[in-house]
Amino acid sequence: MGVVDRAKLLPHGVPSGQSRIDLGAEQTGNVKEIVAATKKAGMDERAAVVAIATSLQESKLENLGHLGDRNDHDSQGLFQQRPSSCWGTVEQITDPQYSTTAFLTGLKQVEGWEEMPLTAAAQTVQVSAFPDHYAQWELQAADLVAEHWTTS
To answer: Which residues contact 70 (CB under 8 A, 6 or more apart)?
Structure first.
């Protein structure tokens, strides 16, 4: 089993103000789904860090359905993607493999994402009202990729 290069996971170091949550079985399963989809897309560990940090911010790694009055428009799934914004159908965006692949497809279209700070790369794909919030999850995302990259 190989070891993941931490410098590759955190090329800009660890941003200040990191957050961390404890993960349950569903959330850990979603981490494994994101890692598997990243590998299937032919992308590297850094892409998985960006995807996991984004999902931590958007859903705390929970595959969210429609939240009624608390819903942000029609956002759903791990990445809070919206059917009305052409991310896919509700069934598609609540499928972890599909939603991750859709996010990574968007990431691939961001020129130079590999050199960008995580929050800039994530924001370019997600177009969030809170663009700086992704960075707070970078260390936990890197830890999760280090833990699951070689086992998924």
So the answer is: none
